[in-house]
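Q: Structure tokens for this one, please.
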Amino acid sequence: LPQPAPRRGAIPVNATVPAVPAADVPRVLARFDGCSTAKVKVAEKGHSLADDAARVRAVRDAVTQRGDIPILRVDANGGWTVDEAVEAALVGAPVGADPRARLPPV
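A: Here is the predicted structure, written as tokens:
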């Protein structure tokens, strides 16, 4: 039997944002048209928590500006201790939110 014609040429699933300066995030995301989910690399050597937080905010803002609801996954690749990960989550949390409230004890 012949294969049916495809309904679409691509399915946007996930953007991966390397440890680039926040100003470069829009250029990176331009390659992932239609993706509202992004994996953001953090905890790379030579980058500070402030650099990481700025990159995550830039991804969130860029996706939101396109009219999408951003779904962000932060990938530290084991580069943070548990305490550093909690600190990073608190830096990136919306005002009034505490991500620890939903985490089981480690």
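A few notes: The mean pLDDT is 86. Helices lie at 25-29, 49-65, 82-92.
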